[in-house]
Amino acid sequence: MSSSSRLESIINTWCVYILFNPNRSKVYVGNTHDLKDRIEKHNRLTSDGGVYTWEPVVAITGFLTNKEATNFESNIKILARKKEFAEYASLYQGRCPSIVLKRIIAIRCLLCEYDYCWRAPRGKKRRYVLHWGDYMERDQRQLDVLQHCPWARVGRNVKHKKLDLS
């Protein structure tokens, strides 16, 4: 497998991911080297016999190390707390809750605007792939708007794919 296709794959590569639990209206942002296994762990049985239902929203690949992925993850969390992001989320009205949208918009800002808080590692032109989960397909218009807004700046290449955990 070539290095570019390895970075586009969701298998055995560092990725940052967003999960949403619609029953509890909770969002989880994390990073892992094995997304399929990590989602299975999130959806484990609870002590009272229930099951958590975390749905993948998006996973971002293109990170070469755990440090790169952890840095990106923590910056998503920091930016999503900013007051302006609630206002930005209101511009993308749809069925996706604002707590999820704020994190998606934070990813977009990190990839194309906010160089002062996160810098893409130096070296070759980096390719980041956003693997969109089934959760976002509930509102195709909203997904189209999100995918067609500018996602990258000079020196970064962003690609969109459907999340495939098989």
From TrEMBL:
Bilayer-crossing regions: none
InterPro entries per record: GIY-YIG_endonuc (IPR000305), GIY-YIG_endonuc_sf (IPR035901)
SUPFAM superfamilies: GIY-YIG endonuclease (SSF82771)
Originating species: Dentiscutata erythropus
Residues annotated as domain GIY-YIG: 12-87
Full protein name: 28574_t:CDS:1
